[in-house]
């Protein structure tokens, strides 16, 4: 048996007992190409029946989550309808999860990639306009994403660029990642936080409601090469469409023929 004690900052973590079988000889990422790595990872998304699914043993430490504590430190009964979905507190909680050294993902046989979770809170911007900027840099190298956002003269791209720069700085200084430039944007999405309502007076004493929308910008950087395509399947080229059309023409049949 092997006992591991890991400390993060001033907060000590409990000792984790693991068997020697968990530390099997892994396949190094350097020996595989980026395409092979992502082919292994894409197999995790293949749906399986629940009776055939085998849950892997994941050994990690995470601080206890106080369910009776509200994010805004208010007193009283905890309303489950408030604070649902992703919040900055939940997103930052992932940074406090400690995995065992050299943890191997059983489904792929590869070491677990290092991740950095960062959130920019309470930004006065529209979530729909921010979504377009997030889709631009999704699954793109972090340096390339910052360059692409810097070329766009839009407020949403500027806000997202500042968020990625802050996440990259945290990866180097706080989480001690040796090469933060070799990370890619694994997740980037906005979530609407607050709506401050105001009023505007028009002619003939007509009043309209104004909604000032505030959002949280969530980003997750992951170490390793970015995938070749953003979607699950690669985009079909003109030759692929031509082959599909030829197959359709050759598979036609005459109804009621001999």
Written account of the structure:
The structure is a single chain. This protein has 258 residues and is an alpha+beta fold. It is built from six helices and nine strands; from the N terminus they run ββββαβαββαααββα. It has helices at 34-42, 88-93, 127-137, 142-151, 155-173, 238-250; strands at 2-4, 7-8, 11-12, 16-18, 60-61, 98-99, 115-124, 183-202, 206-223. Strand 8 (183-202) and strand 9 (206-223) form a beta hairpin. The protein is extended and about 80 Å long.
Multimerization state: single chain
Point out poorly predicted stretches. 1-24
Assign the CATH superfamily of one domain: Ribosomal protein L22/L17
Nearest-angstrom radius of gyration?
Answer: 24 Å
Strands of the biggest beta sheet: in what spatial order?
7-9-8
State mean pLDDT (0 to 100 scale): 84
How helix-rich are the residues, as a percent range? 25-40%
Under CATH at level 1, the class of one domain stands as Alpha Beta
- Give the structural class: alpha+beta
The tally of helices reads 6
Order of helices and strands, N to C? EEEEHEHEEHHHEEH
Share in β-strands: 15-25%
How widely separated are the two ends? 74 Å
How does CATH name the architecture of one domain? Answer: Alpha-Beta Complex
CATH topology of one domain: Ribosomal Protein L22, Chain A
GO molecular function, one term: structural constituent of ribosome
Family: Belongs to the universal ribosomal protein uL22 family.
Keywords: Ribonucleoprotein, Ribosomal protein
Protein name: Large ribosomal subunit protein uL22m
């Amino acid at each position: 048996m092997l006992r591991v004690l890991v400390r993060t900052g001033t907060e000590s973590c409990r000792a984790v007992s693991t068997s020697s079988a968990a530390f099997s000889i892994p396949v190094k990422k350097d020996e595989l190409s980026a395409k092979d790595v992502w082919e292994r990872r894409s197999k995790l998304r293949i749906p399986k029946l629940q009776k055939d699914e085998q849950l892997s043993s994941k050994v990690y430490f995470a601080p206890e989550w106080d369910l009776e504590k509200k994010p805004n430190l208010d007193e009283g009964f905890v309303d489950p309808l408030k604070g649902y979905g992703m919040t900055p507190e939940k997103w930052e909680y992932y940074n406090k999860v400690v995995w065992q050294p050299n943890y191997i993902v059983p489904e792929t046989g590869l070491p677990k990639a290092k991740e950095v979770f960062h959130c920019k809170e309470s930004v006065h911007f529209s979530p729909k306009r921010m979504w377009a900027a997030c889709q631009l840099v999704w699954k793109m190298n972090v340096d390339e994403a910052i360059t692409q956002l810097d070329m766009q003269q839009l407020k949403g791209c500027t806000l997202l660029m500042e968020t990625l720069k802050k996440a990259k700085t945290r990866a180097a200084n706080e989480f001690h990642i040796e090469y933060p430039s070799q990370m890619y944007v694994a997740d980037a999405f906005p979530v609407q936080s607050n709506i401050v309502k105001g009023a505007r007076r028009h002619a003939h004493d007509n009043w309209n409601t104004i909604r000032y929308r505030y959002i949280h910008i969530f980003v997750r950087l992951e170490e390793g090469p970015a995938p070749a395509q953003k979607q699950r399947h690669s985009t079909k080229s003109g030759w692929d469409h031509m082959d599909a059309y030829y197959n359709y023409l050759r598979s036609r049949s005459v109804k009621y023929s001999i």
